[in-house]
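re: the backbone from monday

yeah here it is again, tokenized this time
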């Protein structure tokens, strides 16, 4: 599965390079662009069974994401964008035993997220523009670990397969403003949200109950980055 994921990642990177190399003379504000960004984000891994039984007391959890993207505008106000995002996520929670002793844990998961988004913006002649992006997203699992309240990793037995799925399908939405600093250089700001449709837990992991509810991953954060309009 890892080799398949690597081939898939390489093919998407090649596609992004081709996308950015397309001619930029469609219109005055059309053509390719590249961007980099970073984002502090709130992350959640929600499971209905854990919530209803009260076995997990979820706590607010923060993560971080970094991304590189390419895009192509077909007109002044619309285009497509493809990002590669390294996303550090997870869920903090506590559990209380019969002796009323409380223990803290944090499930950590790292993903390579690959969203393909429709991009829209307001009048590009303005220095400040409203920007909107939305579309499907693939999340490829890079690593997972469980830590105790002291930050020490807890060994999961068996170590194979991973207790989390290697790939998730989801959707993302991003809305904010672009501020033109120079003619071809923009500051990107915005709020980003994504959601995984499928179960992030590996249903074939030994010991997992067959009737256990799915776990859904959610992130929401504030994005800050820079965009360069190629050939503008």
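seq for it, each position gets an aa:
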């Amino acid at each position: 599965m890892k080799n398949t994921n690597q081939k898939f990642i390489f093919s998407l990177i090649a596609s992004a390079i081709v996308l950015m190399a397309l001619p930029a003379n469609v219109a005055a504000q059309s053509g390719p662009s590249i961007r980099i960004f970073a984002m502090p984000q709130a992350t959640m891994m929600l499971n209905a069974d854990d919530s209803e039984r009260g076995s997990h007391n979820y706590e607010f959890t923060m993560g971080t994401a970094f991304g590189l993207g390419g895009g192509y505008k077909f007109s002044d106000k619309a285009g497509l964008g493809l990002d590669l995002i390294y996303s550090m996520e997870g869920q903090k929670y506590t559990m209380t035993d019969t002796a009323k002793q409380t223990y803290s844990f944090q499930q950590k998961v790292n993903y390579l997220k690959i969203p393909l988004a429709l991009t829209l913006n307001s009048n590009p002649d303005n220095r400040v523009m409203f920007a909107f992006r939305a579309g499907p997203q693939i999340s490829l699992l890079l690593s997972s670990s469980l830590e105790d309240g002291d930050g020490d990793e807890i060994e999961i037995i068996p170590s194979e397969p991973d207790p989390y799925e290697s790939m998730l399908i989801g959707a993302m939405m991003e809305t904010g403003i672009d501020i033109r600093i120079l003619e071809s250089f923009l500051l990107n700001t915005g709020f980003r949200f994504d959601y995984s449709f499928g179960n992030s837990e590996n249903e074939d992991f030994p010991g997992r109950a067959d009737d256990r509810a799915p776990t859904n991953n959610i992130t929401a954060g504030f994005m800050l980055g820079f965009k360069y309009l190629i050939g503008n």
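The CA atoms of residues 95 and 187 lie 43 Å apart. The mean pLDDT is 86.
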